[in-house]
Amino acid sequence: MAINTAAFSPKQFQILIAEQDAFGTIEASGGNAYHALDVDSIGMPSLNPTQVLDVRTGSRVLQKEDFFQDVKGSVKEISASGTATTDALDMLLENIMGEAEGSASGVYSFASDAGVQSVGKDDSSQGGTLLSVVVSSPLSASDLAFKDCVVTSLSLSGDVGTEGGRVKFSVTFQTGTLAEDLSDASLSADTAFGADENYFISAWSDVAYRKMYGVDDLVLSSFSLTLENPAMFTGLASTGYEVVSRAGEFSATLDATAKYDANTEPLIASFNNQTQQGATAAQESILNNDGSLTDGAFGILIAKSVLTNVAFNEGDVMMLDISVKAVGDGSNALVEVAC
Q1: Which residues partner with 145 through β-bridges?
Q2: What is the pLDDT of residues 154-189, one digit of tens each?
Q3: CA proximity to 337, closest of 223, 216, 243, 183
Q4: Shortest CA distance to 15 belongs to which of 44, 45, 37, 40?
Q5: Residue 115 banded pLDDT, cuts 50, 70, 90
Q6: pLDDT per residue over 205-231, tens digit each?
Q7: Mean pLDDT score of the chain, rounded to an integer?
Q8: How far, CA to CA in Å, does 249 sit from each of 153, 284, 328?
Q9: Are 10 and 124 in contact (CB under 8 A)?
């Protein structure tokens, strides 16, 4: 066999996602099903096979008969980061919030009294709670295809000193089902992204709605929202795990760096003086252009939040790092995000 002189740029790879209609069946290409993520770089999915490399009795050396590998009981993980775009962000937020496929509301929320969410084998009644994910290769018949994926972590961030404050994302998918195909025929994105789908923190021009823990009129330098919705995989079968459940804590944390001034200075005392269910606790945090979130405009609303950190951030001017965590009150949504 002669050497192959062909080479590929990492930028030729893509990550495609599609909303999946039923457990165990990967979404077919066509009909604008797959959307390309605007990723900065491609990472290798973690296949996590179970391997046993223990030397058995009778030899000091690992023998070929001693090697064991199993892929049915492994959880596969795919991670990506890049620029947040409308179509892809709609699907990511929809999935991590547990909303129904195709809700297309543009404003996604997680209830503060939400219960356990589960979907399993032969379950066709919960379409949209799962995603099909494809790592598309420029090499023919070399795509890595995964079905029954859920978003377990999603971070959205922006910094005025990076790309003009363009909103970026970082996402982690997990699946307990066997990989659909690790040498799939090439899939193309049915819907690609465009520059008109980008979001910028400069759109938050109304200072009344740049608010952390009830303090508005922030001169904002950066923000980062992290949503975590862990998944548990149970019921091992020949095709992998039969059930995926969302039973752990759903958490939403919001970090911001703002100028230290007369508006933000009181947050230091507020952080120290929080009391359980007291008047100084559970204040609103909102980063948006007006008082309500709307479809097509990127914004974040946490109706009730507690301070988890307030600290000086030394730069050319003194800044404050402010961190809050969303808390439920039984009526308001825990967190809402619009795009």
Answers
A1: 134, 181
A2: 999 999 999 999 999 999 999 999 999 998 887 888
A3: 223
A4: 37
A5: confident
A6: 998 999 999 999 999 999 999 999 999
A7: 91
A8: 12, 21, 12
A9: no
**Alpha-carbon dihedral sign for residues 92, 93, 94, 97:** positive
Distance separating alpha carbons of residues 301 and 43, to the nearest angstrom? 31
Residue 251, beta-bridge partner list: 228
Q: Alpha-carbon distance 190 to 287, whole Å? A: 32
- Reported as a single tens digit per residue, the pLDDT across 279-300 is 555 789 999 999 889 999 999 9
Q: Give CA–CA dist 216/204, Å, rounded.
A: 12
Task: Say what the alpha-carbon torsion angle 210, 216, 221, 227 is, to the nearest 10 degrees.
Answer: -60
228 - beta bridge partners?
153, 251
**Assigned token pair, 41:** 């770089």
Enumerate the H helices of 259-320 as residue ranges: 266-273
Instruction: Give the pLDDT band (50/70/90) at residue 128.
Output: low
Residue 288 and residue 106 in contact, taking contact as beta carbons nearer than 8 Å: no
